[in-house]
Amino acid sequence: MKFAVINFPGSNCDMDLFYAIKDGINENVQLVDYREKSLAGFDAVMVPGGFSYGDYLRSGAIAVHAPIVKEIIRFAAEGKIVFGVCNGFQILTELNLLPGALIRNEKSRFVCDITDLTVINNQIAFTNQYQKDETIRIPVAHGEGRYYCDEKTLKEITDNNQIIFKYNDNINGSVDQIAGVTNKKGNVLGMMPHPERAIEDILGSADGLKLFQSIINEQVRVNN
Amino acid sequence: MTEPTAEQIKIEKLYQQWGLTEEEYDLISEKILNRLPNYTETGLYSVMWSEHCSYKNSKKVLRKMPNKSPRVLAGPGEDAGILDIGDNQAVVFKAESHNHPSAVEPYQGAATGVGGIIRDIFSMGATPIALLDSLKFGPLNNGKTKHLVNEVVAGIGGYGNCIGLPTVGGEVSFEDCYEHNPLVNAMCVGLLNNTDFKHGTASGNNSLIVYVGAKTGRDGIHGATFASDEFTDTKNKQRSAVQVGNPFIEKLLMDACVEIIEKHSDWVLGIQDMGAAGLVSSTAEMASKAGSGLVLNLDQVPQRETKMSAYEMMLSESQERMVLCIKPEYETQVLDFFKHYELDAVVIGHVTTDGQYKIYHQGQLVTDIPVDSLTEDVPEYDRKEVQPKRMLADKDYHFEPVVTSLAKTWLDMLQRPNIASKKYFYQTYDSQVKTNTLIRPGGDAGVVRIRGTKKALAMTNDSNSKYVYLNPFVGGQITVMEAARNIVATGGEPIGITDCLNFGNPEDPEAFYELDKSVEGIASACEMIETPVISGNVSLYNEYNETAIYPSPMVGMVGLIDDIDNLTTIAFKDSGDLIYVIGQTQDDFNGSEIQMQQENTIKGDLRPLDLQMEKAHQALVRTAIQQKLLKSCHDLSEGGLAVALSESAFENSLGIDIKTDLTSVQMFSETQSRFLVTVSQKDQAKFETLAAGSYELLGRVTTDPNFKVTTRDEKVSIDGKQAATKWKEAIACLMK
């Protein structure tokens, strides 16, 4: 499988994703500059964490105007794998590829820690290797990671099983403790915690590995 | 506004406002130039001859530091020092203070401190890999200090998190003397893959001087002079001297500079950060090192304000700017390269052979002075020193604590701001980005692996200003050795240090004594364990209304871990493991946290430090770790055994059952050269043979989280969960 990791000015977790794919699941991965206009030849696109454009205006707001973004939208519409972590999640909600928005943490402070998440839905391309309701340890590092949506949207995403991960301990004040959501089709996932930082036990957890293995597993299933 | 004439500057002694003395001014006009310097030139001399840029008061003392070892590839004098770590790789590191700016504008002061130290690292061609911070404030008992703390911490996090570098270690402490003069010291560590690094030189006739990065504004003018003056009530409104940081631009600048040196080193002759004293300092230093002259045309400098004078442009400390010296034939390639990163890059001058520093502005030659006169002709002062009166007066004072309830004192100790968990602060720093952090903040040292190898780097920031205050020489030694124990406890070999020397006014003989003697202490400890001082910075004049801070040298040490399989942490691992203390505990209470707790002051002398024994204990721990005998290891420092036992137990919610010949008060003694270690029962004989004569077996780790402690005086059981809660929540409680 061939993965693209998008590199916006100010992205700073691009290499973390790159190594997770290259060394964690031994797949083909390439950094793609935000000025590129095509994602032809790629099977999955990853939008990394960081502070694209310095988080000016609000996080993710400027990145959505970069040339590569049209291709990310096309990719998502075609049902291909699109994954956004942290600032990548913010960009995907800004693009309306995912429901809701990310706002400043409840306590207004940046928080970096390793958190326990519960896998709410293990039936999508990103989670098929996890058990339902499994607790996984995944790092977080964000200042604007509080998931927000209105009640109608919350009901909708709950009913559609679009809530994928929840925090066991609501570290940022997210609505319904939501840590990660998917689109209706289940091919676009965004999450604030960083599974790409939980690839090796020596880093404190390897629980993020299964997320990437799930993507491979799904591809194998589709191809067969 | 018209600028004062050269005559006005002389007659009205305007140079004094900028920090030049009459003697210095006369030296410039009578011996160096043989004419009166104009307004711009006087400004250039005043910043370049400030303590911050010239080290004129401290040079003589700094020469006492050892700076050689087989690993040293570059020492003091470069933007940062470089140590060989094998496999054609080297580590580059430096620490810098940003005390004065942080006192005035805490968020930006701290943020730009981080930004500046990162530039010092990538200007050496190294990829920055980690940050650390040493912070000192007044007590957390008033809104003003809490605001200061919040803003400084937010500034550090705001910059480091955005640029994407992990903050992996540091320290935060609180003492009265820092109330009006906080200390903010930042350290950056980088990895150099190409050991043919770029010196910061401007060589070769007609080579081009290229300005890269953010535009120049009026911010930070005279920052270096400001940093070389003391605070008083009337001078605390020096807001214009503080710079504003932009980590987004710095991220682009960092990536671009690292790439140009790695991939196109043939284009570049030199590269330097525009830090203190901005354009003048960076360009003059580059030219002076190469023995060259320079011509600069200020009309080319990217400006974000209008009608800036030559004086303002040369002295501006606007952030996120670099200077490159390039071969003229690669001009187009270099400018296009930075354009791709969407960075301003323009040629602002060229190198000459006449040794003159010439600046043109709006068609006028506004400066024409010898380059070396800015960097080499600075007078060097030999300041008078006198042993502080307090040292003689309190020489024979021996503090003896009183502990009537071990449990109560133990719990009180864990809540003291200097002892309690600092997670409230460090959890606002991204410590994991780049996915190489093996030991995050909260351990003895931060550890970052070197991807693709079995190696890792351990790093720590340490200062023990209370000890230095009581005895600058011994305190200086302790500062180095505590840092070394922190490195050793993780499984590392100390390989070098950087330092920030935070002191009072050097013209005060007692303050100068503190500087001189603590440097001698640092030097002797560094020689003993062969850790050269490869970089550093001096911050003098840390005073408020003529009351100085404690003398506060901060040591930033880096260690090499050959094999990450030997990585050791402070956390107790399994029930049944044996708990030992390496080193003999004695009655060392002067300058201790328990003295602060019981007397609310520090007083008395320190016992001399036995450097040989210290070295032997460090060697013992390193051997034991290499033989895989230690399941945990923790340096013993503030608060003594009681605190170290607690911290090691808390991490995995384990308890302890110990019985010792020590008295209850000795549980809080701060005797140096000690480690707390745990050993699996199966390795008991092996460990005890190896450590023969240097250990005491205290007891064992228990699943029951309570602390069962029997001293010579009493037998107590301390509620472990309650202790952990108090330790974890104390700072958050105080910050409310």
UniProtKB/TrEMBL annotation, chain B:
Residue span(s) of domain Phosphoribosylformylglycinamidine synthase linker: 10-56
- Identify a single GO molecular function assigned to this protein: ATP binding
Q: Which residues make up the binding site for substrate?
A: S97, H98, N99, H100, R119, Q243, E317, S318, Q319, S539
Q: How would you classify this enzyme at the top EC level?
A: ligase
Return the similarity comment.
Answer: Belongs to the FGAMS family.
**Subunit composition and interactions:** Monomer. Part of the FGAM synthase complex composed of 1 PurL, 1 PurQ and 2 PurS subunits.
Purpose of the protein: Part of the phosphoribosylformylglycinamidine synthase complex involved in the purines biosynthetic pathway. Catalyzes the ATP-dependent conversion of formylglycinamide ribonucleotide (FGAR) and glutamine to yield formylglycinamidine ribonucleotide (FGAM) and glutamate. The FGAM synthase complex is composed of three subunits. PurQ produces an ammonia molecule by converting glutamine to glutamate. PurL transfers the ammonia molecule to FGAR to form FGAM in an ATP-dependent manner.
Q: What protein name applies here? A: Phosphoribosylformylglycinamidine synthase subunit PurL
Q: Which organism is it from?
A: Companilactobacillus mindensis DSM 14500
Gene that encodes the chain:
purL
